[in-house]
Specification:
Low-confidence stretches: none
Number of helices: 4
Oligomer: single chain
Structural class: mainly alpha
Distance between the termini: 22 Å
Strand content: under 5%
Mean pLDDT: 81
Helix content: 40-55%
Number of domains: 1
Length: 59
């Protein structure tokens, strides 16, 4: 999933790909330590680092 999200290339609109990629990088999520309050906790803690992957064009 992390690899697939890193390979997305979408132009012209904003997407939630950086958000989902950040969740996949979360050790807590990968360890299975999450519940219905996970997103709210991680968003309010400031630990969720959203980063946009480098632009890569492929033919």
């Amino acid at each position: 999933m992390r690899r697939a999200l890193g390979e997305y290339y979408i132009t012209g609109i904003k997407t939630t790909v950086p958000f989902h990629a950040a969740i996949m990088r979360s050790a807590e999520f990968r360890d299975g330590n999450y519940d219905t309050g996970f997103i709210e906790r991680v968003m309010s803690s400031g630990k969720l680092e959203l980063s946009t992957p480098a632009t890569q064009l492929r033919e």
